[in-house]
Protein 1
Amino acid sequence: LLPTLAAAGIDFRREAPPPGHTCGAQGTYAPGSAYEANLRRLGATLPSQANASSCKCSPGNNAGERPDRVIASAYCYWLPDGSSPDCGACITRAFREAERLCPYHRQAMVVVDGGACSVCFHDEQRMEEGMGVGLTGRKRSISATPISVI
Protein backbone atom coordinates (compact mmCIF):
# COMPACT_ATOMS: atom_id res chain seq x y z
CA LEU A 1 0.00 0.00 0.00
CA LEU A 2 2.75 2.51 0.89
CA PRO A 3 4.59 2.11 -2.44
CA THR A 4 1.27 2.60 -4.25
CA LEU A 5 0.55 5.80 -2.32
CA ALA A 6 4.10 7.03 -2.83
CA ALA A 7 3.77 6.39 -6.56
CA ALA A 8 0.64 8.55 -6.49
CA GLY A 9 2.82 11.45 -5.36
CA ILE A 10 1.74 11.66 -1.72
CA ASP A 11 4.53 13.14 0.41
CA PHE A 12 4.03 11.65 3.87
CA ARG A 13 6.43 14.10 5.51
CA ARG A 14 4.08 16.96 4.67
CA GLU A 15 0.82 15.30 5.77
CA ALA A 16 0.23 16.67 9.27
CA PRO A 17 -1.72 14.66 11.80
CA PRO A 18 -4.75 16.44 13.23
CA PRO A 19 -3.94 18.80 16.13
CA GLY A 20 -4.18 17.12 19.50
CA HIS A 21 -2.31 14.85 21.84
CA THR A 22 -2.06 11.30 23.15
CA CYS A 23 -0.59 10.35 26.51
CA GLY A 24 0.73 6.80 26.28
CA ALA A 25 0.34 3.87 28.63
CA GLN A 26 4.02 3.36 29.51
CA GLY A 27 3.64 4.71 33.03
CA THR A 28 5.13 7.82 34.57
CA TYR A 29 8.51 9.12 35.67
CA ALA A 30 9.42 10.94 38.88
CA PRO A 31 10.21 14.66 38.96
CA GLY A 32 13.98 15.15 38.93
CA SER A 33 14.61 11.61 37.62
CA ALA A 34 17.17 10.54 35.03
CA TYR A 35 14.27 9.99 32.58
CA GLU A 36 13.18 13.61 33.00
CA ALA A 37 16.76 14.83 32.48
CA ASN A 38 17.03 12.78 29.27
CA LEU A 39 13.69 14.08 28.02
CA ARG A 40 14.74 17.68 28.73
CA ARG A 41 18.04 17.09 26.90
CA LEU A 42 16.11 15.98 23.81
CA GLY A 43 13.69 18.89 24.18
CA ALA A 44 16.67 21.26 24.11
CA THR A 45 18.43 19.71 21.09
CA LEU A 46 15.65 18.58 18.71
CA PRO A 47 14.43 22.08 17.75
CA SER A 48 17.83 23.17 16.39
CA GLN A 49 18.38 19.79 14.70
CA ALA A 50 15.04 20.10 12.91
CA ASN A 51 15.79 23.69 11.84
CA ALA A 52 19.13 22.58 10.41
CA SER A 53 17.74 19.57 8.51
CA SER A 54 16.46 19.70 4.94
CA CYS A 55 13.33 17.75 5.94
CA LYS A 56 12.55 20.07 8.89
CA CYS A 57 12.49 16.99 11.07
CA SER A 58 14.56 15.16 13.64
CA PRO A 59 13.48 11.51 13.70
CA GLY A 60 14.70 8.71 15.98
CA ASN A 61 16.82 10.57 18.54
CA ASN A 62 17.69 9.08 21.89
CA ALA A 63 19.18 10.16 25.20
CA GLY A 64 20.30 8.22 28.25
CA GLU A 65 20.85 4.61 29.12
CA ARG A 66 18.43 1.85 30.06
CA PRO A 67 16.13 1.86 31.92
CA ASP A 68 15.80 5.63 31.41
CA ARG A 69 16.54 5.91 27.67
CA VAL A 70 14.11 8.18 25.84
CA ILE A 71 13.45 7.95 22.10
CA ALA A 72 12.00 11.12 20.52
CA SER A 73 11.10 12.45 17.07
CA ALA A 74 9.99 15.88 15.89
CA TYR A 75 8.48 16.94 12.56
CA CYS A 76 7.33 20.17 10.92
CA TYR A 77 4.74 19.90 8.16
CA TRP A 78 4.99 23.08 6.10
CA LEU A 79 7.08 23.64 3.02
CA PRO A 80 10.44 25.19 3.88
CA ASP A 81 10.06 28.56 2.15
CA GLY A 82 10.58 32.13 3.30
CA SER A 83 7.04 32.52 4.63
CA SER A 84 7.15 29.43 6.86
CA PRO A 85 7.20 29.89 10.63
CA ASP A 86 10.19 28.77 12.69
CA CYS A 87 10.18 24.96 12.87
CA GLY A 88 12.39 24.87 15.98
CA ALA A 89 10.11 27.27 17.86
CA CYS A 90 7.10 25.12 16.94
CA ILE A 91 8.87 21.99 18.24
CA THR A 92 9.78 23.79 21.47
CA ARG A 93 6.06 24.63 21.94
CA ALA A 94 5.17 20.99 21.27
CA PHE A 95 7.55 19.78 24.00
CA ARG A 96 6.06 22.33 26.45
CA GLU A 97 2.56 21.18 25.56
CA ALA A 98 3.57 17.54 26.08
CA GLU A 99 4.75 18.44 29.59
CA ARG A 100 1.52 20.34 30.28
CA LEU A 101 -0.95 17.86 28.74
CA CYS A 102 0.82 14.63 29.74
CA PRO A 103 2.65 15.50 32.97
CA TYR A 104 5.32 12.93 33.84
CA HIS A 105 4.14 10.42 31.20
CA ARG A 106 6.89 8.25 29.72
CA GLN A 107 5.11 8.30 26.34
CA ALA A 108 3.34 11.12 24.52
CA MET A 109 2.53 12.51 21.08
CA VAL A 110 1.57 16.16 20.70
CA VAL A 111 0.58 18.17 17.61
CA VAL A 112 0.50 21.98 17.95
CA ASP A 113 -0.05 25.19 16.00
CA GLY A 114 -2.95 23.85 13.98
CA GLY A 115 -0.97 20.81 12.84
CA ALA A 116 2.22 22.68 11.94
CA CYS A 117 4.48 20.36 13.94
CA SER A 118 4.53 17.34 16.20
CA VAL A 119 6.70 15.74 18.85
CA CYS A 120 6.53 12.18 20.09
CA PHE A 121 8.61 10.36 22.68
CA HIS A 122 8.59 7.04 24.48
CA ASP A 123 10.50 4.84 26.90
CA GLU A 124 12.66 2.50 24.80
CA GLN A 125 12.71 -0.42 27.24
CA ARG A 126 8.99 -0.32 28.06
CA MET A 127 8.12 -0.11 24.35
CA GLU A 128 10.18 -3.23 23.63
CA GLU A 129 8.66 -5.07 26.58
CA GLY A 130 5.16 -4.14 25.38
CA MET A 131 6.01 -5.50 21.94
CA GLY A 132 7.33 -8.78 23.38
CA VAL A 133 11.02 -8.08 22.72
CA GLY A 134 13.44 -8.67 25.59
CA LEU A 135 16.84 -7.15 26.27
CA THR A 136 18.44 -9.70 23.96
CA GLY A 137 16.23 -8.59 21.07
CA ARG A 138 14.65 -12.05 20.77
CA LYS A 139 10.89 -12.45 20.63
CA ARG A 140 9.12 -13.52 23.77
CA SER A 141 5.52 -14.58 24.03
CA ILE A 142 3.10 -12.24 22.31
CA SER A 143 0.24 -10.86 24.35
CA ALA A 144 -3.27 -10.49 22.96
CA THR A 145 -3.52 -7.12 24.72
CA PRO A 146 -3.34 -4.25 22.23
CA ILE A 147 -0.65 -1.65 22.79
CA SER A 148 -0.65 2.02 21.93
CA VAL A 149 2.10 2.97 19.51
CA ILE A 150 2.44 6.62 18.66
Protein 2
Amino acid sequence: MDERQMECLLSDYKRFSARREMLYQEISLTREQLESEKRMAELHALQPSRDPLAIRDPVPADPTAKAALLFAEGIQPLSVRELEDRLLRMEGELRANETLCRYTEILLKVLTDRELMVIDRHVIAGETYENTIRAFALRWPRDAIQSRDGMRRIKNRAIRKMLSVAKESRLPVYGLQPGPFPPGSGSDAG
Protein backbone atom coordinates (compact mmCIF):
# COMPACT_ATOMS: atom_id res chain seq x y z
CA MET A 1 0.00 0.00 0.00
CA ASP A 2 1.39 3.40 -0.93
CA GLU A 3 0.52 6.94 0.16
CA ARG A 4 -2.07 7.44 -2.56
CA GLN A 5 -3.89 4.23 -1.64
CA MET A 6 -3.83 5.18 2.04
CA GLU A 7 -5.33 8.57 1.19
CA CYS A 8 -8.05 6.86 -0.88
CA LEU A 9 -8.77 4.46 1.98
CA LEU A 10 -9.13 7.38 4.38
CA SER A 11 -11.42 9.29 2.02
CA ASP A 12 -13.57 6.15 1.57
CA TYR A 13 -13.70 5.63 5.35
CA LYS A 14 -16.50 8.18 5.73
CA ARG A 15 -18.62 6.37 3.13
CA PHE A 16 -17.86 2.95 4.62
CA SER A 17 -18.68 4.03 8.17
CA ALA A 18 -21.94 5.69 7.08
CA ARG A 19 -22.91 2.57 5.14
CA ARG A 20 -22.03 0.45 8.19
CA GLU A 21 -24.43 2.43 10.40
CA MET A 22 -27.14 2.21 7.76
CA LEU A 23 -26.62 -1.56 7.47
CA TYR A 24 -26.98 -1.97 11.25
CA GLN A 25 -30.38 -0.27 11.05
CA GLU A 26 -31.48 -2.15 7.93
CA ILE A 27 -30.49 -5.51 9.40
CA SER A 28 -32.41 -4.76 12.57
CA LEU A 29 -35.53 -3.78 10.63
CA THR A 30 -35.21 -6.77 8.29
CA ARG A 31 -34.92 -9.15 11.25
CA GLU A 32 -38.09 -7.69 12.76
CA GLN A 33 -39.87 -7.97 9.42
CA LEU A 34 -38.65 -11.56 8.99
CA GLU A 35 -39.95 -12.56 12.42
CA SER A 36 -43.28 -10.92 11.62
CA GLU A 37 -43.51 -12.75 8.27
CA LYS A 38 -42.69 -16.06 9.96
CA ARG A 39 -45.38 -15.50 12.59
CA MET A 40 -47.89 -14.61 9.88
CA ALA A 41 -46.97 -17.76 7.92
CA GLU A 42 -47.40 -19.89 11.03
CA LEU A 43 -50.77 -18.30 11.79
CA HIS A 44 -51.85 -18.81 8.20
CA ALA A 45 -50.81 -22.46 8.36
CA LEU A 46 -52.79 -22.94 11.57
CA GLN A 47 -56.05 -21.65 10.09
CA PRO A 48 -58.43 -24.44 9.06
CA SER A 49 -59.19 -24.61 5.36
CA ARG A 50 -62.74 -23.83 4.15
CA ASP A 51 -61.98 -24.99 0.64
CA PRO A 52 -64.06 -28.07 -0.33
CA LEU A 53 -61.13 -29.41 -2.38
CA ALA A 54 -58.94 -29.35 0.72
CA ILE A 55 -60.93 -32.28 2.08
CA ARG A 56 -59.26 -34.54 -0.48
CA ASP A 57 -55.87 -32.98 0.28
CA PRO A 58 -53.50 -35.32 2.17
CA VAL A 59 -52.66 -32.46 4.55
CA PRO A 60 -54.32 -33.18 7.91
CA ALA A 61 -57.32 -31.11 8.94
CA ASP A 62 -55.96 -30.61 12.43
CA PRO A 63 -54.31 -27.15 12.39
CA THR A 64 -51.52 -28.19 14.72
CA ALA A 65 -50.69 -31.25 12.64
CA LYS A 66 -50.88 -29.15 9.47
CA ALA A 67 -48.42 -26.59 10.86
CA ALA A 68 -46.11 -29.36 12.07
CA LEU A 69 -46.18 -31.01 8.63
CA LEU A 70 -45.42 -27.75 6.80
CA PHE A 71 -42.63 -26.94 9.25
CA ALA A 72 -41.14 -30.43 8.93
CA GLU A 73 -41.14 -30.13 5.14
CA GLY A 74 -39.40 -26.77 5.38
CA ILE A 75 -42.07 -25.02 3.37
CA GLN A 76 -41.81 -21.27 3.78
CA PRO A 77 -43.53 -18.49 1.92
CA LEU A 78 -41.55 -16.75 -0.79
CA SER A 79 -41.46 -13.50 1.20
CA VAL A 80 -39.67 -15.25 4.08
CA ARG A 81 -37.05 -16.74 1.77
CA GLU A 82 -36.49 -13.38 0.07
CA LEU A 83 -36.06 -11.66 3.43
CA GLU A 84 -33.59 -14.32 4.58
CA ASP A 85 -31.56 -13.90 1.37
CA ARG A 86 -31.59 -10.11 1.75
CA LEU A 87 -30.50 -10.46 5.37
CA LEU A 88 -27.58 -12.72 4.39
CA ARG A 89 -26.43 -10.26 1.70
CA MET A 90 -26.58 -7.31 4.11
CA GLU A 91 -24.70 -9.22 6.82
CA GLY A 92 -21.96 -10.10 4.32
CA GLU A 93 -21.63 -6.47 3.25
CA LEU A 94 -21.61 -5.42 6.90
CA ARG A 95 -18.74 -7.80 7.66
CA ALA A 96 -16.69 -6.33 4.79
CA ASN A 97 -17.45 -2.72 5.83
CA GLU A 98 -16.82 -3.53 9.49
CA THR A 99 -13.39 -4.91 8.63
CA LEU A 100 -12.41 -1.84 6.61
CA CYS A 101 -13.72 0.57 9.25
CA ARG A 102 -11.94 -1.18 12.11
CA TYR A 103 -8.74 -1.33 10.08
CA THR A 104 -8.92 2.41 9.41
CA GLU A 105 -9.82 3.20 13.04
CA ILE A 106 -6.76 1.26 14.23
CA LEU A 107 -4.56 3.32 11.92
CA LEU A 108 -6.14 6.61 13.04
CA LYS A 109 -5.34 5.87 16.70
CA VAL A 110 -1.59 6.30 16.13
CA LEU A 111 -1.94 9.96 15.10
CA THR A 112 -1.45 13.00 17.30
CA ASP A 113 -4.36 15.40 17.81
CA ARG A 114 -3.06 17.80 15.18
CA GLU A 115 -2.45 15.08 12.60
CA LEU A 116 -5.84 13.57 13.33
CA MET A 117 -7.56 16.92 12.86
CA VAL A 118 -5.93 17.48 9.48
CA ILE A 119 -6.68 13.93 8.30
CA ASP A 120 -10.22 14.03 9.66
CA ARG A 121 -11.17 17.42 8.26
CA HIS A 122 -9.25 17.48 4.99
CA VAL A 123 -8.93 13.87 3.84
CA ILE A 124 -11.94 12.14 5.42
CA ALA A 125 -14.47 14.98 5.42
CA GLY A 126 -13.14 16.51 2.20
CA GLU A 127 -12.87 20.09 3.48
CA THR A 128 -10.61 22.57 1.74
CA TYR A 129 -7.19 23.47 3.09
CA GLU A 130 -8.46 26.97 3.90
CA ASN A 131 -11.24 25.66 6.16
CA THR A 132 -8.83 23.23 7.79
CA ILE A 133 -6.33 26.07 8.42
CA ARG A 134 -9.09 28.17 10.05
CA ALA A 135 -10.19 25.30 12.29
CA PHE A 136 -6.56 24.58 13.18
CA ALA A 137 -6.02 28.24 14.12
CA LEU A 138 -9.12 28.24 16.33
CA ARG A 139 -8.05 25.12 18.18
CA TRP A 140 -4.31 25.90 18.48
CA PRO A 141 -3.92 29.70 18.12
CA ARG A 142 -0.23 29.74 19.12
CA ASP A 143 0.78 27.05 16.64
CA ALA A 144 -1.44 28.21 13.82
CA ILE A 145 -0.24 27.11 10.42
CA GLN A 146 -0.99 29.75 7.83
CA SER A 147 -0.17 27.92 4.62
CA ARG A 148 -1.33 24.99 2.55
CA ASP A 149 2.23 23.67 2.55
CA GLY A 150 2.17 23.38 6.33
CA MET A 151 -1.09 21.44 6.18
CA ARG A 152 0.27 19.22 3.42
CA ARG A 153 3.35 18.45 5.51
CA ILE A 154 1.18 17.44 8.48
CA LYS A 155 -1.06 15.34 6.23
CA ASN A 156 1.86 13.60 4.52
CA ARG A 157 3.56 12.94 7.86
CA ALA A 158 0.35 11.41 9.22
CA ILE A 159 -0.11 9.21 6.16
CA ARG A 160 3.50 8.02 6.32
CA LYS A 161 3.07 7.27 10.02
CA MET A 162 -0.05 5.18 9.34
CA LEU A 163 1.72 3.33 6.53
CA SER A 164 4.68 2.50 8.75
CA VAL A 165 2.37 1.23 11.51
CA ALA A 166 0.50 -0.92 9.00
CA LYS A 167 3.77 -2.39 7.71
CA GLU A 168 5.41 -2.87 11.12
CA SER A 169 2.40 -4.49 12.74
CA ARG A 170 1.79 -6.59 9.63
CA LEU A 171 -1.82 -5.57 9.41
CA PRO A 172 -3.41 -7.05 6.30
CA VAL A 173 -3.25 -4.86 3.23
CA TYR A 174 -6.73 -3.87 2.20
CA GLY A 175 -7.69 -2.53 -1.17
CA LEU A 176 -10.34 -0.03 -2.03
CA GLN A 177 -12.94 -2.55 -3.19
CA PRO A 178 -16.08 -3.09 -1.11
CA GLY A 179 -14.80 -6.51 -0.04
CA PRO A 180 -11.98 -6.94 2.46
CA PHE A 181 -9.30 -8.14 0.00
CA PRO A 182 -8.72 -7.15 -3.62
CA PRO A 183 -8.04 -10.02 -6.01
CA GLY A 184 -4.35 -10.78 -6.42
CA SER A 185 -3.21 -8.79 -3.39
CA GLY A 186 -1.56 -11.81 -1.84
CA SER A 187 -3.83 -11.58 1.19
CA ASP A 188 -6.84 -13.26 -0.38
CA ALA A 189 -7.58 -16.97 -0.06
CA GLY A 190 -7.64 -17.66 -3.82
Protein 3
Amino acid sequence: MKKIVFVMLMLVFLNFLFATRVAKIGQYEINLEDIQKEMKNLHDSLDVEIK
Protein backbone atom coordinates (compact mmCIF):
# COMPACT_ATOMS: atom_id res chain seq x y z
CA MET A 1 0.00 0.00 0.00
CA LYS A 2 2.83 2.41 0.83
CA LYS A 3 4.46 1.70 -2.54
CA ILE A 4 1.27 2.63 -4.38
CA VAL A 5 0.96 5.91 -2.49
CA PHE A 6 4.63 6.69 -3.12
CA VAL A 7 4.31 5.95 -6.84
CA MET A 8 1.19 8.12 -7.09
CA LEU A 9 2.96 11.02 -5.36
CA MET A 10 5.96 10.66 -7.66
CA LEU A 11 3.70 10.71 -10.72
CA VAL A 12 2.00 13.89 -9.52
CA PHE A 13 5.37 15.50 -8.82
CA LEU A 14 6.80 14.54 -12.21
CA ASN A 15 3.65 15.77 -13.94
CA PHE A 16 4.03 19.12 -12.17
CA LEU A 17 7.69 19.39 -13.24
CA PHE A 18 6.81 18.55 -16.85
CA ALA A 19 3.97 21.09 -16.90
CA THR A 20 6.16 23.89 -15.53
CA ARG A 21 8.91 23.07 -18.05
CA VAL A 22 6.43 23.23 -20.95
CA ALA A 23 5.08 26.52 -19.61
CA LYS A 24 8.60 27.99 -19.47
CA ILE A 25 9.37 26.88 -23.02
CA GLY A 26 6.08 28.38 -24.20
CA GLN A 27 6.91 31.65 -22.46
CA TYR A 28 10.33 31.78 -24.17
CA GLU A 29 8.69 31.23 -27.57
CA ILE A 30 6.21 34.05 -26.90
CA ASN A 31 9.06 36.35 -25.84
CA LEU A 32 10.99 35.43 -28.98
CA GLU A 33 7.99 36.30 -31.16
CA ASP A 34 7.66 39.66 -29.38
CA ILE A 35 11.35 40.41 -29.92
CA GLN A 36 11.08 39.51 -33.60
CA LYS A 37 8.09 41.85 -33.99
CA GLU A 38 9.98 44.66 -32.25
CA MET A 39 13.01 44.13 -34.50
CA LYS A 40 10.82 44.19 -37.61
CA ASN A 41 9.14 47.40 -36.44
CA LEU A 42 12.53 48.95 -35.76
CA HIS A 43 13.81 47.86 -39.16
CA ASP A 44 10.71 49.31 -40.86
CA SER A 45 11.10 52.61 -39.02
CA LEU A 46 14.76 52.81 -40.04
CA ASP A 47 13.79 52.21 -43.67
CA VAL A 48 11.34 55.11 -43.50
CA GLU A 49 13.96 57.44 -41.99
CA ILE A 50 16.57 56.57 -44.63
CA LYS A 51 14.24 57.40 -47.52
Protein 4
Amino acid sequence: LDNVMLDKEGHIKIADFGMCKENVFGDNKASTFCGTPDYIAPEILQGLRYTFSVDWWSFGVLLYEMLIGQSPFHGDDEDELFESIRVDTPHYPRWITKESKDILEKVGLRISTWVMAPLLFWKKLQKCASNCLLLCLTQKSASDYNNFDREFLSEKPKLSYSDKNLIESMDQSAFDGFSFINPKFEQIL
Protein backbone atom coordinates (compact mmCIF):
# COMPACT_ATOMS: atom_id res chain seq x y z
CA LEU A 1 0.00 0.00 0.00
CA ASP A 2 2.97 2.36 0.12
CA ASN A 3 2.48 3.14 -3.58
CA VAL A 4 -1.08 4.36 -3.08
CA MET A 5 -1.59 7.84 -1.72
CA LEU A 6 -4.62 9.92 -0.80
CA ASP A 7 -4.96 13.65 -1.30
CA LYS A 8 -6.80 15.84 1.18
CA GLU A 9 -10.14 15.21 -0.58
CA GLY A 10 -9.69 11.44 -0.37
CA HIS A 11 -8.79 10.97 -4.04
CA ILE A 12 -6.48 8.06 -4.72
CA LYS A 13 -3.13 8.62 -6.42
CA ILE A 14 -0.91 5.78 -7.60
CA ALA A 15 2.75 6.59 -7.12
CA ASP A 16 4.48 3.61 -8.74
CA PHE A 17 4.13 2.18 -12.21
CA GLY A 18 7.11 -0.18 -12.02
CA MET A 19 5.39 -2.74 -14.20
CA CYS A 20 2.86 -1.59 -16.76
CA LYS A 21 1.46 -3.38 -19.78
CA GLU A 22 0.21 -1.38 -22.74
CA ASN A 23 -2.58 -2.22 -25.19
CA VAL A 24 -4.37 -4.76 -23.00
CA PHE A 25 -7.89 -4.13 -24.26
CA GLY A 26 -10.31 -5.59 -26.79
CA ASP A 27 -9.02 -9.00 -27.87
CA ASN A 28 -5.50 -8.28 -26.59
CA LYS A 29 -4.72 -10.12 -23.37
CA ALA A 30 -1.71 -10.51 -21.11
CA SER A 31 -0.35 -13.70 -19.60
CA THR A 32 2.53 -12.55 -17.38
CA PHE A 33 2.46 -13.89 -13.82
CA CYS A 34 3.10 -10.70 -11.87
CA GLY A 35 1.80 -8.52 -9.09
CA THR A 36 1.92 -8.03 -5.35
CA PRO A 37 0.71 -11.32 -3.81
CA ASP A 38 -2.21 -9.88 -1.81
CA TYR A 39 -3.64 -8.17 -4.90
CA ILE A 40 -3.18 -10.81 -7.62
CA ALA A 41 -6.43 -11.68 -9.37
CA PRO A 42 -7.62 -15.30 -9.63
CA GLU A 43 -7.16 -15.29 -13.44
CA ILE A 44 -3.44 -14.68 -13.02
CA LEU A 45 -3.13 -17.42 -10.40
CA GLN A 46 -4.94 -19.86 -12.69
CA GLY A 47 -2.54 -19.08 -15.56
CA LEU A 48 -5.33 -17.66 -17.73
CA ARG A 49 -4.86 -14.85 -20.22
CA TYR A 50 -6.33 -11.65 -18.79
CA THR A 51 -7.29 -8.04 -19.49
CA PHE A 52 -7.30 -4.88 -17.39
CA SER A 53 -10.04 -6.48 -15.29
CA VAL A 54 -7.24 -7.77 -13.04
CA ASP A 55 -6.58 -4.12 -12.10
CA TRP A 56 -10.19 -3.78 -11.00
CA TRP A 57 -9.76 -6.88 -8.85
CA SER A 58 -6.71 -5.30 -7.20
CA PHE A 59 -8.65 -2.07 -6.75
CA GLY A 60 -11.43 -4.02 -5.03
CA VAL A 61 -8.94 -5.63 -2.65
CA LEU A 62 -7.49 -2.19 -1.88
CA LEU A 63 -10.94 -0.73 -1.19
CA TYR A 64 -11.76 -3.67 1.07
CA GLU A 65 -8.57 -3.04 3.05
CA MET A 66 -9.29 0.68 3.32
CA LEU A 67 -12.88 0.21 4.43
CA ILE A 68 -12.49 -2.83 6.67
CA GLY A 69 -8.89 -2.52 7.84
CA GLN A 70 -7.63 -5.94 6.80
CA SER A 71 -7.10 -8.03 3.70
CA PRO A 72 -10.04 -10.05 2.35
CA PHE A 73 -7.76 -13.06 1.78
CA HIS A 74 -5.45 -14.77 4.24
CA GLY A 75 -2.67 -17.35 4.41
CA ASP A 76 0.46 -18.14 6.39
CA ASP A 77 2.51 -18.22 3.20
CA GLU A 78 2.04 -17.36 -0.49
CA ASP A 79 0.62 -20.78 -1.36
CA GLU A 80 -2.10 -20.47 1.29
CA LEU A 81 -2.78 -16.85 0.31
CA PHE A 82 -3.14 -17.79 -3.37
CA GLU A 83 -5.47 -20.66 -2.46
CA SER A 84 -7.56 -18.22 -0.41
CA ILE A 85 -7.77 -15.82 -3.38
CA ARG A 86 -8.85 -18.67 -5.68
CA VAL A 87 -11.54 -20.23 -3.46
CA ASP A 88 -12.54 -18.04 -0.50
CA THR A 89 -15.40 -15.54 -0.43
CA PRO A 90 -14.53 -12.32 1.43
CA HIS A 91 -16.19 -11.85 4.82
CA TYR A 92 -18.09 -8.59 5.28
CA PRO A 93 -18.47 -7.43 8.89
CA ARG A 94 -21.99 -6.58 10.06
CA TRP A 95 -21.05 -2.94 10.60
CA ILE A 96 -20.15 -2.26 6.95
CA THR A 97 -22.83 -0.29 5.12
CA LYS A 98 -24.88 -1.90 2.39
CA GLU A 99 -23.59 0.71 -0.08
CA SER A 100 -19.95 -0.03 0.75
CA LYS A 101 -20.49 -3.77 0.41
CA ASP A 102 -22.27 -3.23 -2.90
CA ILE A 103 -19.37 -1.18 -4.28
CA LEU A 104 -16.81 -3.73 -3.09
CA GLU A 105 -18.68 -6.58 -4.72
CA LYS A 106 -19.31 -4.75 -7.98
CA VAL A 107 -16.05 -2.88 -8.52
CA GLY A 108 -13.55 -5.40 -7.36
CA LEU A 109 -14.25 -8.75 -5.90
CA ARG A 110 -16.95 -9.88 -8.33
CA ILE A 111 -15.93 -7.88 -11.40
CA SER A 112 -16.22 -10.86 -13.75
CA THR A 113 -19.96 -11.06 -13.08
CA TRP A 114 -20.67 -7.33 -13.36
CA VAL A 115 -18.64 -5.95 -16.27
CA MET A 116 -20.13 -2.43 -16.32
CA ALA A 117 -19.20 -1.64 -12.70
CA PRO A 118 -15.98 0.25 -13.45
CA LEU A 119 -17.60 2.66 -15.91
CA LEU A 120 -20.56 3.40 -13.68
CA PHE A 121 -18.38 3.69 -10.59
CA TRP A 122 -16.04 6.25 -12.15
CA LYS A 123 -18.92 8.32 -13.51
CA LYS A 124 -20.47 8.40 -10.04
CA LEU A 125 -17.14 9.13 -8.39
CA GLN A 126 -16.46 12.05 -10.74
CA LYS A 127 -19.79 13.52 -9.65
CA CYS A 128 -18.93 12.73 -6.00
CA ALA A 129 -22.01 10.53 -5.83
CA SER A 130 -20.13 7.66 -4.22
CA ASN A 131 -20.03 9.31 -0.81
CA CYS A 132 -19.87 6.05 1.12
CA LEU A 133 -16.22 5.68 0.07
CA LEU A 134 -15.18 9.28 0.34
CA LEU A 135 -16.62 9.81 3.81
CA CYS A 136 -14.14 7.49 5.46
CA LEU A 137 -11.17 8.64 3.36
CA THR A 138 -11.37 12.41 3.53
CA GLN A 139 -9.41 14.59 5.89
CA LYS A 140 -11.23 16.81 8.34
CA SER A 141 -8.48 19.45 8.11
CA ALA A 142 -5.08 19.95 6.46
CA SER A 143 -3.39 18.59 9.60
CA ASP A 144 -5.61 15.49 9.96
CA TYR A 145 -3.48 12.37 9.51
CA ASN A 146 -6.03 9.74 10.54
CA ASN A 147 -5.67 7.94 7.20
CA PHE A 148 -1.93 7.39 7.69
CA ASP A 149 -0.33 4.47 9.45
CA ARG A 150 1.22 5.80 12.69
CA GLU A 151 4.42 3.88 11.91
CA PHE A 152 5.11 6.16 8.93
CA LEU A 153 4.30 9.39 10.76
CA SER A 154 7.34 8.89 12.98
CA GLU A 155 9.76 8.38 10.08
CA LYS A 156 12.13 11.20 9.28
CA PRO A 157 11.54 12.52 5.74
CA LYS A 158 14.36 12.05 3.24
CA LEU A 159 14.87 14.31 0.27
CA SER A 160 15.86 12.44 -2.86
CA TYR A 161 17.47 14.16 -5.81
CA SER A 162 16.91 13.36 -9.46
CA ASP A 163 19.79 13.00 -11.88
CA LYS A 164 18.93 15.53 -14.61
CA ASN A 165 21.12 13.72 -17.18
CA LEU A 166 19.43 10.40 -16.47
CA ILE A 167 15.96 11.93 -16.80
CA GLU A 168 16.86 13.63 -20.09
CA SER A 169 18.28 10.37 -21.49
CA MET A 170 15.01 8.50 -20.89
CA ASP A 171 12.00 8.47 -23.22
CA GLN A 172 9.47 10.81 -21.61
CA SER A 173 6.71 10.36 -24.21
CA ALA A 174 4.73 8.14 -21.81
CA PHE A 175 4.01 11.29 -19.83
CA ASP A 176 2.71 13.38 -22.76
CA GLY A 177 -0.63 14.94 -21.93
CA PHE A 178 -0.05 15.19 -18.19
CA SER A 179 -0.90 18.74 -17.22
CA PHE A 180 0.59 19.03 -13.75
CA ILE A 181 4.24 19.53 -12.96
CA ASN A 182 5.29 20.23 -9.40
CA PRO A 183 6.77 23.76 -9.43
CA LYS A 184 9.71 22.54 -7.32
CA PHE A 185 10.41 19.82 -9.89
CA GLU A 186 10.30 22.38 -12.74
CA GLN A 187 13.21 24.18 -11.08
CA ILE A 188 15.29 21.00 -11.24
CA LEU A 189 14.58 20.57 -14.95
